[in-house]
């Protein structure tokens, strides 16, 4: 098992539940909580320090900064929610720089699948399972926490399994 796969195997059991929480709260409340974002940062801060060589650990903090700046610019233009930008930034250190292109494909696939599943559920009787969710009546707005959480979870699981 490579060092990257070992790290992903350790991160996944902690990060996947955070991602599920993010998907749930974004669908229910149309917001990604700061506590979830902070939890991801803490998981990387503690786990990354133990799992990566110092230079790699520090370099990955730059991933967070770069993605946060890009996310803030997209948020300022109205193209991305603030919670979405913060979650993307908090998740960035978990992604190896060499995997960025594949993660974009994974984000696209999860985005399309999440959008289709959410809109299908919203238009059917499935909606009655959680009638109070704000995302059902959010017009064109979409809870990006669903595909963002799915993509980060899938990435860690794929890497942990040697993919």
Notes on the protein architecture:
The chain is mostly helical. The chain has one domain. It is built from six helices and no strands. It has helices at 3-29, 34-51, 54-76, 82-91, 100-122, 145-160. α1 (3-29) runs antiparallel to α6 and α3 (54-76) runs antiparallel to α4. The radius of gyration is 16 Å and the shape is globular. It starts with a helix and ends with a helix.
> Which sheet architecture does the biggest sheet show?
none
Overall structural domain count = 1
State the helical fraction: over 70%
- Nearest-integer average pLDDT: 95
Shape verdict: globular
Unreliable runs = none
| Helical segment count | 6
Q: Tell me the radius of gyration.
A: 16 Å
Order of helices and strands: HHHHHH
What is the number of E strands?
Answer: 0
Structural class: mainly alpha
Beta-strand content estimate: under 5%
**What is the CA-CA span between the terminal residues?**
11 Å
Protein name: Prepilin peptidase
GO molecular function: aspartic-type endopeptidase activity
Keywords: Membrane, Transmembrane, Transmembrane helix
Q: What labels would you give this structure?
A:
163 residues, single chain, mainly alpha
Secondary structure layout plus pairing:
Elements: H1 3-29, H2 34-51, H3 54-76, H4 82-91, H5 100-122, H6 145-160
Quick take:
With 163 residues, this protein is an all-alpha fold. Helix content is 72%, strand content 0%. It has six helices and no strands.
């Amino acid at each position: 098992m490579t060092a990257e796969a070992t790290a992903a195997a350790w991160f996944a059991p902690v990060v996947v539940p955070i991602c599920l929480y993010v998907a749930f709260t974004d669908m229910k409340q149309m917001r990604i909580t700061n506590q979830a974002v902070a939890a991801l940062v803490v998981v990387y801060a503690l786990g990354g320090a133990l799992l990566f060589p110092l230079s790699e650990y520090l370099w990955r903090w730059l991933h967070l900064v770069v993605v946060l700046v890009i996310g803030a610019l997209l948020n300022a233009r109205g193209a991305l929610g603030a919670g979405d930008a913060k979650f993307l930034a908090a998740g960035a250190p978990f992604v190896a720089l060499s995997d960025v292109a594949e993660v974009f494909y994974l984000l696209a696939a999860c985005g399309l699948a999440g959008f289709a599943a959410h809109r299908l559920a919203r238009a059917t009787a499935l909606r009655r399972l959680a009638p109070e969710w704000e995302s059902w009546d959010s017009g064109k707005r979409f809870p990006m926490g669903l595909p963002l959480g799915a993509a980060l979870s899938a990435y860690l699981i794929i890497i942990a399994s040697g993919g």
